[in-house]
Design a protein that fits this description.
The protein has 128 residues and is an alpha+beta fold. The chain contains three helices and six strands, in the order αβββαβββα. The longest helix is centred in the middle third of the chain and has 16 residues.
């Protein structure tokens, strides 16, 4: 498995271990955290011994945006995601965007997105 996909696997595993529903495809149901490639997706940090920096866009999607308490549920989900992400070595906690509504099948859901960075091992550390 590539270093980038291994970093996504670590993020998803941490979320799921924290009791958070995580998805990497378009098939999901709220509450959920979507984990998608960030932009830029990957880079090399020469100052860190050519470590690959992978960036993943995480989107916390709470319940329906038009219901009472949607913002509170979203804030709670973001807090739970931060706690789960603290268990992933090399990951920097994200700065979350202002809450907004996203559309799915004609319904609005409260959501907030962030880009997280994860330093992966150097090629020398993973090659035999």
């Amino acid at each position: 498995m590539s270093r980038l996909l291994a970093s996504r696997t670590a993020i998803v595993a941490a979320l799921e271990a924290g009791g958070i529903n995580a998805a990497t495809t378009a098939k999901w149901s709220a509450p959920v955290v979507l984990v998608e490639p960030g932009d830029p997706w990957a880079g090399v940090e020469l100052s860190l011994g050519r470590r690959r920096t992978g960036r993943w866009r995480v989107t916390a999607v709470a319940g329906r945006a038009d219901t009472d308490g949607a913002l509170e549920r979203l804030a709670d989900l973001v807090d739970r995601v931060d706690v789960a992400l603290l268990t992933v070595p090399g990951l920097e906690l994200p700065t979350w965007s202002r809450p907004s509504d996203i559309q799915l099948d004609g319904a609005s859901y409260a959501a907030s997105s962030a880009t997280i960075q994860l330093q992966t091992p150097t090629l020398q550390e993973v090659l035999p």
